[in-house]
Amino acid sequence: MIKSERREQKMMGLGERWRLQDAKARFSEVVKRAREHGPQRVTLHGKDAVVIVSAESYDRERERHTGRRLVEALAASPLAGIMLERPFISGPVRDVEV
After folding, report:
1. Cα–Cα distances in angstroms (integers) from residue 92 to residues 19, 88, 97, 98, in the given order
2. Does the domain at residues 3-73 carry the CATH identifier 3.40.1620.10?
3. Deepest in the core among 28, 52, 65, 70, taking most CB within 10 A?
4. What family, per the record (predicted)?
C-alpha cells in the first residue's frame, strides 16, 4: 500500500480510529465495524476521545467487574468464619446549628 492510500484510509476513518467529523458522517459504518471488527476509537483534536463498542462486548465486560467472583472467593476461603474485631473510635463532636 502506498503512503497516500494509508493517509487516505486514516483520514476517512478506516481501521480502528475515526476523526470525530468522519465518525459523525459515517456513524452507521462505525457501528457496523464495532459489531463486526471490535472497538472503534473516535478522536477529537487528534487525541482519543471515546471508544465505540458493540453492546455484546460492553455487557460481557461489565459482567466481569461486578465483584461477585471476589465475594464468592472470600466466602469459600478457609478464613470465612473468622470474626474480625471492628474497633469503634469516637472523636470530638461539635455543635452545629441547623
Report:
1. 56, 13, 16, 19
2. yes
3. 52
4. Belongs to the phD/YefM antitoxin family.
Task: Give the number of C-alpha atoms closer than 13 A to the C-alpha of residue 29, restricted to the C-beta side.
Answer: 13
C-alpha 17/C-alpha 15 separation (Å) is 6
pLDDT digits (tens, 9 = 90+) for 67-96: 888 888 888 998 888 888 888 888 888 888
**Domain spans in the chain, listed from the N-terminal domain onward:** 3-73
| Of 60, 15, 21, the residue nearest 40 (C-alpha) | 15
